[in-house]
Design goal:
By secondary structure, the chain is of the alpha/beta class. The protein folds into two domains: 231 residues, Type I PLP-dependent aspartate aminotransferase-like (Major domain) (Aspartate Aminotransferase, domain 2), CATH 3.40.640.10; 127 residues, Aspartate Aminotransferase, domain 1 (Alpha-Beta Complex), CATH 3.90.1150. It is built from 16 helices and 17 strands. The chain has a seven-stranded mixed beta sheet, with helices on both faces. The chain has a four-stranded antiparallel beta sheet with strand order 13-14-17-16, covered by helices on one side. Helix 5 crosses helix 10. It is globular and about 60 Å long. It starts with 20 loop residues before the first helix and ends with a helix.
Length: 426
Amino acid sequence: MTVTEAPTGPTTTTGRPWASEALHRADPQIADLLAAEAERRAETVQLLAGENLTSPAVLAALTGPLIDKYAEGYPGRRHHTGCALADAAELLAIDRARELFAAPHANVQPRSGTSAMLAAYAALLKPGDGVLAMSLEHGGHLSCGSRANFSGRWFAFTGYGVREEDGLIDLDQVRELARLQRPKAIVAGSISYPRHVDWAAFREIADEVDAYLIASVAQTTGLVAAGLAPSPVPYADVTVAATHKLLRGPRGGLLLCTAELAERIDRAVFPFSQGGAAMNEVAGKAVAFAEASTPAYRAYAARAVSGAQALAEGLAEAGLRPLTGGTDTHLVTADVSALGVTGAEAERRCAAAGLLLGKCALPYDPAPPSEASGIRLGTGTVTSQGMGEGELRRIAELIVEALSRPVTEGVRERVRSLAAAFAERR
């Protein structure tokens, strides 16, 4: 490059790679969309349970030179040359995951929690095998038997649920169904269950019927890492986790398993269900695991839980019944029918006010799934921005106001003001 040529790299004075001069020159439309997305976030309160802000260090790893490194295979056994440094990054991620979760083996390559679940099934099951998992109506994930998903087409699922009187997992039903169905695997975990899971009880049931135990902790991976939720690793044959959500890492999956299943799990990820790993994501996961081992992260996770409890209490005081009466985690699931709205209408009204949350079907819900009676919220993002119990109680009041009457510019402006006060924090 001569001294008169303009640089073509991702130079920026803002510290945001997506705002670089190179992107604006190459594709102003995408640059404008990314700028609009940043503005949208700055004006709204993010309460979606599956979202969080990745840490600045993770973002730096994601945009580093490993972003375009092709490293198909595993460390020391790649299908391409030039992978020594990629190997080092992956081995760091593996070692840190094993130490963080006290796991005999870790696979850090899955691109999502669902792809990690696919690999877990592929390692343990054959098409047509029976699986016992939480029913979709009671909080099970699509990968736990939905006919729209590979799981419901390849395996024979039976669903267990929660007790109607208190919303807690019905372990007596789990045991009865396990004895009746004799499944090859039992999946413990949910996308909306706000309480801790009794892993020892599930292990006992699995042993009784000679089934594998798969722990699905995509929503609570960060709490397990912080020691604020019981770890399934000592009990489960395979643990399926996610590295985004509360963990604040890149979007991706993680598999933890016993030493005996290590080779089967690895082969189920590559070459069975994935090609080359996204090495920038692997590096980002390594950073996230290191950050999650610190006292600062543990304090963050504790604030996410206390904030969720304050949010649940605020909603309950207004008559919006929280599932199970509260929460042990960063998740809150609440029944909005007392205000005469469905979950879908609640989602729309809150979105109009700048409060982003999701509708959620409740156990024994009389409303159709497309409308539902509940909402699901998470405190990961707002806690990353610095909000605490006081702000979460205020948010509960704003939600109730948005659901009680047509959304006014007044409530929208109060939401915008709250969001703006914390928008630049990460």
